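Case study: N-formylglutamate amidohydrolase.
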Amino acid sequence: MRRMVRMIETGTATHAENAGFQLLNAAQPAFPVLISIPHSGRDYPPELIDNLRVSPTDLMRLEDRYADRLVGPALAAGMTAIVAHRARAWIDLNRAEDDLDPEMVTPRIDGYKSSNSMKMRGGLGLIPRRLMHVGDLWKRPLAADDIKRRLDQFHRPYHQAIEQTLLNIRDRFGTAILVDVHSMPPLTATATQAPRIVIGDRFGQCAPALYAEMLMARLKSLNVPAALNHPYPGDYILRRHGKTQGCIHAIQIEVDRSLYLDSMQREPGPGLESTASLISELLYCLVDLVSERAIPLAAE
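Here is what the predicted structure looks like once written out:
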């Protein structure tokens, strides 16, 4: 990478060491884009492993395995990114704080009201509780103080860093785009070829339709099967940070893992380089669109 990797500046070295994520190329953003990689973390704290009732390898299913490698070329070019290193099993950065299953916590948190969302009921809330075909993940309920610590030291700082960085980018370029990058298992083909990329903007709620339409058009021109908002429209990160009236937009990109991982979908495969180039292509499309739309504004 051409630029130094920088830990988020939080004012205290201890907090920086325990943040569980890195903010890269953020001192002077060179592009109007912030890349978020919330689920690629492969750091599993010892206390998490100690409480597991399943094999640690089962937790790989929660990961967007090596999704951080997909933005290597973009980082080398100087694009700004925030990348989680702490595993999703610790706490899910793409879930709201009220998406916690209260049955997981002891003692019960006074006054806590759960969202009771479908994902939480399915075991994939703020802290994952169970996996399909695997069952419950944890031997013991989690202490309420432990949940608070995970929120205070990881979840909240991650989102605060996104908010501040997006504001800095908007102030610098007039518009900021958050691109939340995830990976997905291969989708089942229906009447047409299964999508290999899914673009999400929460059905136009988090970005002007033009952004997603342009990405879909570029994927079509490259003969990459793609879908818009189905089955992944985006979740909490897009809902929280996409503020279209404030010139801060949010897009999600889901990438078929078979494009860049090996046949077991555990390690980088031969398609990693080409898939990373494809993601860079999509990111530069967004950069170009912002630049083109900024010209009339500057002329006024």
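For the exam, be able to explain this: The mean pLDDT is 89.
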